[in-house]
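We read letters as residues; the fold follows as tokens. Both lines appear below.
***
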Amino acid sequence: MVVAVVIVAALFRGCAGGKEDQPGSSFNGVQIGAITYSWRGMPSSAEDVLRYCRETGISSIELMGDVAEAFAGIPPLHAWPEEEARKRQREWRLSVPMEKYMDLWKMFNDSGVQIHIVKFSPAQWSDEEIDYAFNAARAMGAKGVSNEIGHEACIRLGRFAEKHDMFAIFHNHGQPGDPDFNFEEFLAYSPKNMLNFDVGHYFGATGKHPNDIIGKLHHRIFSIHLKDKTARDADPADTNMPWGEGDTPIADILTLIRDNQWPIHCDIELEYEIPEGSDAVKETARCVEYCREILL
């Protein structure tokens, strides 16, 4: 199995040397990527993350903000008492030159990897720090900043997204399981509010087919998080599984996006338990191959 993954990754990268050695994970017009949270249990410097992209053939990512800020030199929280550390981080954010983030963009771009979202999750930051988050995301080539969904977050970040002519992109967990939950309420706060629609969480919490939401709101969905979960009424219920062993209709989702050529980023979020003898990078490569076989 490990050998097969290595072969698949090599096919995505192409022959060694030059542009042909860059990753490529767009299949029939559907961009498959990953949120770098998928590799949270592994070394996670920006250089590590770029290496994982190359090893899995991934050419587009939602980058976790802590990875970006560590590259740019943010003072670590553990270096001082928490209140002092957060003060130093705020001061750093308001003074760090954007060239640091342009260097990060160049490093990824030169290797054929696009950063389409940065997950700074800045809804509770100061106004000045939120401006920084959007400016830094732009310097990295991203189209927007992501945050967990919520009324206050959508109201506040929507205004900043309009100011910066970018997107505020909101991720759901199990909230749609509440019968009163309505994605459109959150989108109505700003035309720059978009969804990072987690189809696995949605399906596991509601038991409903995610294509109902995708078909209705595709013009307001910037990206989706792909995972395979069991259904709400399964045993065990609403549980992350290796892809192909759960109940989430991943194939239906990907073919709907492919057939309509909707410009929705489809990002792997690896959350199931890593099998013995494997690691998150090998499992991500398997997920990329799973998508490729559906889409080609």
Remarks:
- The chain has one domain: 23-295.
- The two ends are 21 Å apart (CA to CA).
- The chain has twelve helices and eleven strands.
- The first strand starts at residue 26 and ends at 27.
